[in-house]
């Protein structure tokens, strides 16, 4: 059974930092591309940052220079370091695992609120 569990969300002031973590089990983690997505209310879920199985990264323009995605294949985890947070970063953040023919899996999400 695949399990994807996010943690690390919370309330932070503008300009602050948070580190999100995603623990994965039930798949061969190292062969999956991983990503962080976010969703605000009923808006479409959007990609924030992705990291391929070989370590290549990609970021949404709005977070470049502020967020860093990383993975630890030994621990089956992927993290998102978020610095210089802004109110428009407020969203539910989701972890996603995808493989070209094995399919994709989502976590349950973690709330990030940036507010003074």
Task: Explain briefly what this protein structure is.
The protein has 116 residues and is mainly β. Helices cover 0% and strands 53% of the residues.
How would you describe this structure to a colleague?
- The chain is mainly β and 116 residues long.
- It is built from no helices and 11 strands.
- Strands 2, 4, 5, 6, 9, 10 and 11 form a 7-stranded mixed sheet that branches. It has a 4-stranded antiparallel sheet with strand order 1-3-8-7, with no helix packed on it.
- A hairpin with a 3-residue loop joins strand 9 and strand 10 (103-106).
Keywords:
116 residues, mainly beta, 0% helix, single chain, 53% strand
By DSSP (H or I, 4+ residues per run), the number of helices equals 0
Low-confidence stretches: none
Structural class of the helices, strands and pairings? mainly beta
Shape from CA axes? Answer: globular
What Rg do the Cα atoms give? 13 Å
Major beta-sheet overview = 7 strands, mixed
Order of SSEs: EEEEEEEEEEE
Give the fraction of residues assigned to helices. Answer: under 10%
**Average pLDDT score:** 97
Number of strands: 11
Distance between the termini: 40 Å
Could you tell me the strand content as a percent range? Answer: over 45%
């Amino acid at each position: 059974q695949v399990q994807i569990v996010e943690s690390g969300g919370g309330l932070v002031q503008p300009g602050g930092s948070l580190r999100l973590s995603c623990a994965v089990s039930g798949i061969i983690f190292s062969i999956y591309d991983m990503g962080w997505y976010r969703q605000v209310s009923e808006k479409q879920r959007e990609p924030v940052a992705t990291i391929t199985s070989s370590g290549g990264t990609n970021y949404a323009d709005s977070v470049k220079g502020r967020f860093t995605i990383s993975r630890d294949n030994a621990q089956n985890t992927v993290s998102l370091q978020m610095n210089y947070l802004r109110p428009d970063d407020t969203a539910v953040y989701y972890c996603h695992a995808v493989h070209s023919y094995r399919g994709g899996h989502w976590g349950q999400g973690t709330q990030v609120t940036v507010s003074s």
